Amino acid sequence: MSDENSTEHQLRLLIERVERLEEEKKGISDDIRDVYSEAKAVGYDTKVMKLIVKLRKMRPDDRREMDSITETYKAALGLD
To answer: What does each C-alpha distance from 34 to 54, 56, 68 come to in angstroms?
Structure first.
């Protein structure tokens, strides 16, 4: 196999891997959407659930900083 064919083969394999991963990602996204639909069907607020998921991903220091800034902005706008 020449270097050019080897390079083309490697590129094809990489593209195929990305395509498979994109399919898996779509499947996972569909599964997540289904879980949120199920939660909504039993009365949970999915917007709040998504916020909680986002907050749980954050480091505690970052979460505290965001809370502090949010409270400052709310106070400045009279939302307290």
So the answer is: 18, 20, 33
Cα angle 63-65-68, degrees, rounded to a multiple of 5: 110
In this prediction, residue 1 carries a pLDDT of 58
pLDDT for 45-54, tens place per residue? 999 999 999 9
Q: Are 36 and 49 in contact (CB under 8 A)?
A: yes
CA distance 72 to 64: 12
Q: Give the per-residue pLDDT at 3.
A: 75
What lies within 8 Å, CB to CB, of 80 at 6+ separation is 74
Q: How far apart are CA 80 and CA 63, in angstroms?
A: 19
Domain of 33 in residue numbering reads as 3-76
